[in-house]
Amino acid sequence: MAESSEEEEKKASEENLDSLEQELDNAVEEDLSKELEASKKEAADYLEALQRERADFINFRNRTSKEREQFKRAGVEDALKALLPVLDDLDRIREHGQMDESLKAVSKQMDKALSKLGIEKFGEAGEAFDPSMHEAVLHNPKKGVDSDVLEAVVEAGYKMDGKVVRAARVVVSSPLPETEPEESQPQSEEGEAGADQ
Predict the structure, then answer these.
(1) Which among 2, 28, 77, 186 would be 20 to 30 A from 9, CA to CA?
(2) DSSP for 147-197?
(3) Does the predicted model carry a pTM greater than 0.70?
């Protein structure tokens, strides 16, 4: 009987050992599962943070690029405003035909440089008057004119990237105001006739 009791104990020990191994396997598996879930969550958090940082960087890069363009534009606009008196003098000299060959070459280079910077000169006689682009220094009513038209340009206008930097100062030919027929004229004639009698 001692043998059977030893066998039973041995069998019970083996079952206990199997049970403990099973519990240990389950515990290890559960711990590994928890660690895996925690690692997945941590990886997802890092990925989200990385994506947020990347988006912030892209926004920063776009914002600084726009700011750089605005600063460049402001610098070019300031330089143009400083050069306006020189450009006006060149236009006056050109208009009166007093340019020699060297001055013509300088004027041509200036026009090319302005063009490269996106600066456009506007305002020529015959164009329609546009108050958003032209500043009328004189209105000259004329017969035969249907709408306001530029008669002469005193100072050319300049715009950059579609924005007016300086309006063109112009003389405008305007249609003559329509006069109403004088109905009182026949009455005054009658009054004059009555005065004569």
Answers:
(1) 28
(2) S-EEEEEEE-EEEETTEEEEPEEEEEEEEPPPPPP-SHHHHHHHHHHHHH-
(3) no
Instruction: From residue 191, give the alpha-carbon distance in Å to each of 181, 183, 184, 194, 196.
Output: 18, 13, 10, 5, 9
Nearest to 165 by CA among 58, 106, 87: 87
Edge-first strand order for the sheet with 168-175 is 134-142, 168-175, 149-155
Q: Tens-digit pLDDT profile for the chain (197 aa)?
A: 556 677 777 777 777 777 878 888 888 888 888 888 888 899 999 999 999 999 999 999 999 999 999 999 999 999 999 999 999 998 888 888 877 888 888 889 998 999 999 999 999 988 999 999 999 999 888 888 888 999 999 999 999 988 999 999 999 998 887 765 555 444 444 444 444 44
Is 127:155 a contact under the CB 8 Å cutoff?
Answer: no
Please count the residues of the chain: 197
Question: How many Cβ atoms from other residues are within 10 Å of residue 156's Cβ?
Answer: 18
> 62-91 burial string, b = 16+ CB within 10 Å, else e?
eeeeeeeeeeeeeebbeebeebeeebeebb
